[in-house]
Amino acid sequence: MATKSDAAADVTRPSLSFKRRLNAPPAKVFAAWTDPQKIIRWFGRADAKPGSFHADIDARIGGRFCVSFSTDDEYYEVGGVYHEVVPNERLVFSWAWHSTPERESLVTVSLKSDGEGTLLTLLHEQLFDQAARDGHERGWTGALEKLEKFVA
């Protein structure tokens, strides 16, 4: 049961959002998020080692995902549980790095058809602190740039 102080703490946790217009239909963008063979081609940091990506995705409500990759210096693994899955429209999932599972946050990806393309909105909420927000802002910026090229 959440107490008032728990609720207040959640309200003050930082979030960030992105909007992008992608030159691909929603079905192609949705598949890029939910197909393990596709997500490993765009997800993650720009300095990740080629061939180091691995993904397990069970894109259904209650299903889990896990994506991992390596840089020259570090191994990264992130995972979560899908709370909402609306094909070609919306994904809502928890998000936690393997190294800091207590810092779970929430990601919502919304897709809307826009002529021949897709308007993508990504909202990442309940981040642990401002430093986590800033790090995720850098990470999502790079990943979304790679996604844009991948689906084009």
UniProtKB/TrEMBL annotation:
Residues 23-151 form the Activator of Hsp90 ATPase homologue 1/2-like C-terminal domain. Belongs to the AHA1 family. This is Uncharacterized conserved protein YndB, AHSA1/START domain. It comes from Bradyrhizobium lablabi.
